[in-house]
User: Fold this.
Amino acid sequence: MAYPPAAQSPLARQPSVKVILASADVQRVVDRIAHQILEKTQGAANTVLLGIPTRGAPLARRLAARISTFEDVAVPVGVLDITLYRDDLRRHATRAVGPTQLPTGGIDGRRVILVDDVLFSGRTVRAALDALNDVGRPASVQLAVLVDRGHRELPIRADYVGKNIPTSLAESVKVTLAETDGADEVKLYGGTTTS
Amino acid sequence: MIRHLLSGADLDAATATQILDTAAEMATVAGREVKKLPALRGRTVVNLFYEDSTRTRISFEAAAKRLSADVINFSAKGSSVAKGESLKDTALTLQAMGADAVVVRHPASGAAHRLADWVDGSVVNAGDGTHEHPTQALLDAYTMRARLGRLAGLSVAVVGDVLHSRVARSNVLLLSTLGAKVTLVGPPTLIPRDISPALAPGTAVSYDLDAVLPTSDVVMMLRVQRERMNDSYFPSAREYARRYGLDGPRMRRLPEHAIVMHPGPMNRGMEITPEVADSPRSTIVEQVANGVSVRMAVLYLLLGGNNR
Assistant:
């Protein structure tokens, strides 16, 4: 009897998918970040949340909603599109430009907290810092992310991290949110496994 | 994404809408303290102008500079063209200098198409003879959408010297793609006879301005192009103004919401009276401001990515 080699078996090629955060976990993590923001900023006074599209924008809105539930402060929320500030524009086909919406009152002299779903190479945050520089002069800038998966290529770190996920470069992290994808979930796709 | 922008017919509805949406984002830059985006850093845009132009050249220059591109302005006057250099040789020179995009205006219809065969970079037609001027059509469409909220179903009257107007030609092509209904109005001698129903579906012709006005959402007045007229197309300027000029009483016959457009430069008193040109319905100054945003969008979409 001859069996095909294991490497060619269809089973061996199936990528492994692991749910890191389920819907309830995502909500708990968002609640914790909201509490941490309140703690670290002494009540989130003079603070603006800016979401980085796509999934940073709904995350920023959720954080603001949770903060207002916990402490009854209204934190202005905005969206900061970073497309035109990316360092890889020329490596891809032209990217569509999204809207940038700054809260009324702007960001000058305020504490800006950038919000994104996954922190990976740090290049998106670098682009966001450049974009911020062109729309105003905040008093300080902080970073909140739902997931930090490591592998930084720039000297950037987050001030608020929902979940640290140690990953290999072959793996990929996918965040889905109810607002953009229909359901809250964080999944780790493991590339190919040989088991 | 398209590589060149040569004609209003190069754009399908999705691409044209993408340009208008991108332009809306670009417009927010004009309101900022730092009116600059880094998207085209290190790219070179050559403005190759064989014809006199104020607003188009300045508009393209401002657009390219706001996107951080390097801009080289070339006008035929005072260059080797005055010594008899051909368009092709000039194009090859620009190519050798590493132009990523060439914005060309030329008195010969089709010059931009020829240029697109000779250079590796993107070519943007900024007006070729009496043929086309697609970025003007885009900024007109942008202005209509900004003022009236939509393009589909709008009734647009394009009035005057349609025959010699590249603005009209590009507008007919683009607006019919985007679902507006265009009516060309002018003396029979200044309306082309070869309007293709395939290229511009729904385009109508009328010789009576007063009949068209009450049902128009947009009236686009065209400049009477004396410099392109080798013939007498109408008896006198006064007669033209009386039949096809837009004055106060005619403007009041328009629906309440209707706007008046003009691509400029205007012949005040000929096709449009100062009362109309300076009225709140006139979008003439807005069109200039929108021109920069639309050209930023075009340059970004042509040059921003790796589209080769």
Summary: Strands of chain A lie at 17-21, 47-51, 77-79, 111-119, 140-148, 160-164, 172-176, 185-189. Chain A touches chain B through 21 residues (CB under 8 Å).
